[in-house]
Structure formats: C-alpha cells, structure tokens
Amino acid sequence: MPPASIKAVERKQKNDVVEVIVPVSTWRYKAVGLVFGLFFAGLVGRAIYLQVVDRDYLQSQGNARYLRVKTELPTRGMIRDRNGEPLAISTPVDSIWMNPSKILEQQSEYSYKKLTGLLGITRAQLLERAEKRKTREFVYLQRHMAPHEANAILALNVPGINSVREYKRYYPAAQVTGHVVGFTDIDNKGQEGLELVFDEQLRGRNGRTQVLRDRVGHVVEHVEQLSRVHHGDDVTVSIDSRIQYLAHRHLEAAVTKHKAKTASLVALNAKTGEVLAMVSMPDFNPNDRSNLRSSQFKNRSITDSFEPGSTVKPFSIGLALEEGVVTPSTMIDAEQGRYQIGGWDVTDTKRLGEISVAEVIQKSSNIGAAKIALKMEPLELHEAYQALGFGQKNQLTLKGEQRGVLAKRKKWRPIEHATLSYGYGLSVNALQLARAYLALANDGVLLPVSLHPVSEPPEGKRVFSSETVEQISSMLEMAVSSNGTAPKARVDQYRVGGKTGTAHKLKDGRYQDDAYMSSFAGFAPLSDPQIVLVVMIDDPRGVDYYGGLVAAPVFSEVMSGALRYLQVPPDNIDNQYNLEPEKLKLMIRRPEVAKLGGPDDL
Known about the structure:
39% helix; 602 residues; Penicillin-binding protein 2a (Domain 2); alpha+beta; five-stranded mixed β-sheet
C-alpha cells in the first residue's frame, strides 16, 4: 500500500477513537461531580439549618448535659423563749448524693474503695443501690454529714458523686423542752409540738439557681438565679427556759422518788395567761430519736385527762359562796368521816365532826363539799365548771389537746351531784386546771392561755366576784398551813394558796384501791399572785401517794425558784412558815440574798 494510503488509514482510525472515548469520559466526571456537589450542599444546608434555623435544639441538648437547676434550701427559723434564748436552731450539714447511671458507667474504671469506706458501705451495696434506681438522676447516699466529712468524699472527684447543703435541727435544751418544742423530720418538716404548729412560718421557701456543671458533676459556674431563697422566720414563745428547767428537774426527781408512771406540770403567768413552763414525764431527747416510741412524744399536760379530785373543791364551794348558800363560817357536820348518799358511801380520810366551810377546804372534806353542793341545783355546778373551761379545749394551737369530760345529764342522781363537787365524774388536763386556778389568782377573771408573749393583759371573763375570790384565797392559804393538807407546799418568804388532790384511778369502770392520781394546784404570792402552778403525778408507787406528800413538794421547789428568778418581792418575811432562825439572821444581814437568791437556787 502506498505511503499516502497508509497515512490516510491511520488518520481515520485516530478520528474513530476520539469519537468513541471522549463522550464516555465526560459523562462520568459530570456524574461524580454532581454527587459530591449535592453532598456538600446538603452539609452546608444542614449546618445553616442547625446553626441558624434550629439553633435552640443544639443549645438545649448541650444544656441538658451540663446545665442544671440547683435548689437552694432555706435556713429554718429559730424558736426562742421569751428572753431570746434559743430553743431550736438549724446547723449546716451536707448530704452526699449520686447519679446512678454515671456510677454504673464508671464501675469498671473505679474501685470505689475509698468512697465506700468513707460512706460506711460496701462496693456491692453501692452498685446495688445504683442499679435499683438507674432511671433516676438524684439518689441520696448519706444524709446530714458534717461538712468536713462531705468534703473528704468530694475530694475523691468520683464522677456522679456530689453533695447538697442542708440544715439539721438542734435543740439546746434537749429533753427539758422536748414535749413543747417538738421536732422535725430529716427533711426539716415539723412533726410535733411548736415545730409542727409554726411549720409554715419557720420553714421558708426554696430558691432556684441555674448552674453549669463539669463532667464529674461539680458546679463550675452560676448562670442565673431563677428565684431567691426565703429563709424561715424566727418564732418567739412565752416559755421561760429557766422556769422550764426548774420544773423539769424537780418533776423528774419526784417521778423517780415515788416510782410514778407519768407526770405533768404547767406554770402560767397569773396576770397574762402566758404559759411559762410545760413539762411532761417521761421525757425524750429530740436530738436523738433512734430508739424512741410515739408514746414518748405525748405532751401530757394537754393530752392526758384525769379526775382532778379535791383540787376542784374551791370552785364548788366558791359557787356556794357566790350564790349566798353558805358563808366561810357556816358549820357543816362531817359525820365522823362516813356519810351515805343514795346508798353510796362518801368518806373522808379523817374522822371530822362539826367543821366550818373554810375548814372543808383546809381539811379537804369530801363529805363537807358534798353537803354544800347538795344545797344547790346540779345544773348550777355543771354550768360553773363549764364557765371555768372544763370540757373545752384551750385553743393553745398545740396538737393533741383533749377537751376532757364534763357530762351534762338530763337527770342527776344525788351521788353524781355530790361527787362532782369533790372532783369525781369529770376529767380535765393539767392546762385546764391551771387555767381555772388562774381565775382565782386574777381576782375572779378567767383569762385565755397563750404560748405567745403578751405585752398587755388580754380581755377576760369574770366568773367569781372579788369578795368570793378573797374568801377562797384565805381558805387556800389555810390548806398549806400546819393544820392543812399541804404544809409541804409552802414557800419561804411568800404567802401561798393551793389545794391538794388525791383521786382513785378509774380502770375498766371500777375505781382502784391502790392506784391514785396525786395533784396540787395553787398560786403565789397570795397578796399579789404572779404565778399559777399545777403539778400532776400519775400512779405513785412509793410509800407516799397523797397529793400533799407527792405533788405539793414539787410545787414548793418550782414556785420558790421561779419567784426568786422573777424577782417577785416577798410578802411573808415574818417567819410565818417557820423559817430557821439562822436563815432569818442571814437575811437580815444580807437582804439581797432574801430578794434574789443566786444561780444555785435555780
């Protein structure tokens, strides 16, 4: 083939190759470029969407991992006595908590030996607790630790382990004020006593703060305060902690000495009705409730009702004086200690003959009181007791107060009418009885009782005339004389008026021959009463059981210390109550001793 032909063929083949290859190569490049272009555009579009259009979503997801709302607990308000002394305070403590999911995630990386050692649990117990609550983010491990103990745990920097600041309640007077002040639970909510009554005022309101936490869970930044914490308000009550201490000490000693079952004591300000002291036995320590029973929490001054016995004779005889049925000098035949009414025997502890109405109080004659009461209508006596507050609550705000029993019968049997005059057939608590004696100490005007400090005497209700009160007060002073039933109730340098009570206890519908309720109620100083005091001792099992031997000495000791502490001027410094000569000489040389006493006297 000629050279020219060969070149033409080669040229033709070259053109054929170009025509076939070029179109195929261009299509592939364009397809790949289109795919990458669409992918990149999608990324850019997604980025724009997330960063501009839906940016809140990403922020919320980030916040969910690191932002938390932290609750700030308020400090519970203090409870103070009338002089500002603390009865209940809050101390800062730390509680350790965990995030169970983080504990379970990290269990292969951490031995938890130091952590569990400080917490006092085993590794198995920690993991078991986390497994049971793995759906939760907050689980307490240990509550109310001392701050330095909690800091030692936090210093381990274990992921999922954190602390929260809380407050633990502390009661400086412990068992001395336990029944009145009460206590809170572990979450600082009031459960008993004043803590429960004033819970809303004392508790305050939580605060909320948004914080940023690191991966371990520690707070690294406070972002925003959502609501401010409002700390609880302080509460001041009428209780005088020093009189309360006196009452607790002497009542406890009496319960121990006489092997009594329970006891209670109430002291009131005779001018205002304020509660100065309220003590119950057995007591309990609100700072340590590990082995306590609910029965120990009872404030028996208001929860336990009892038949008051002879302590109500001043009121039944006061009614007779008020109605003009008798006078203090009217003579009554006490029948030598035994008298029948409707087939029932009424007895006295002594064989008494003709005695005056005044001696009915002094000698505590049941027969005399019954005969005087039978001169009146039974409804009159019932209404007189009702006017004194028997059978009614005192609205003291403390929970659990019982109203007692004051039955109103359609038809009264003579024996029911008679026994009502000397304290059987009705029941009262110690506070009710103290309030009734408040009327005798306040010139016949019955005042409301209060746990709040009172600056001005409240408005009261007159239940006896001034003349009747003066007559009854003289009789009550005779009751604590050497010839009365309660010489052990006397107080050196002060005139005292009061009445004993020794009532058989009722069980299963029958009065027990060997179980008694021993009591004493009175006030001092007689010339200008400042304090009303009631002592009730349940079922004394020692040698003595009469109110004049069991309850009256407690009255004397507490009243003596309280009057001196309050610096009440003596109204009986002429040795009427047989002060020892040597003590009288000391008082003459050092009158300040007679006026004040000292810390040892309290």
